[in-house]
Amino acid sequence: MVSDPASSEDSPSLQNVLDALDDANCRAILRETAEPMTANELIDACDIPKSTLYRKLELLSRASLVREQDTINPGGGRTTRYERDFDDVTISMDDEDDLSVAVKRPPRSPDERLEDIWSKMGDEL
């Protein structure tokens, strides 16, 4: 629903990052997602309605600041957790007075990269 693991390596647009960071609910979600959390956990922790949470997760995903992780449950179905997907965001201005954004991401293990690929494949089925 929220993120495209293949695009999480791409640089997000400056406007998408600014829009997400300017939103108080998005900032609350980012504070809570240092460790993976489910939507229900985020609803409780951030004290925001479910519909608002999903809109904010979409905004954070477009900015490539949150990543979605799906886990297959032994009894069937899957659990989706959301995790902050950056170590640092830098906004800078170049010599031509153009703003740009750089997002530094945590290193991913091969298992995490494979998990991203499987998660993306599951979304396409």
UniProtKB/TrEMBL annotation:
> Do you know which Pfam families this protein is assigned to?
HTH_20 (PF12840)
Annotated spans, Disordered = 101-125
Which residue spans traverse the membrane?
none
* Ranges annotated as biased composition (Basic and acidic residues): 108-125
Coiled-coil region list: none
Q: What is this protein called?
A: Helix-turn-helix domain-containing protein
Query: Which species is the source of this protein?
Result: Halohasta litorea
Lineage of source species: Archaea, Methanobacteriati, Methanobacteriota, Stenosarchaea group, Halobacteria
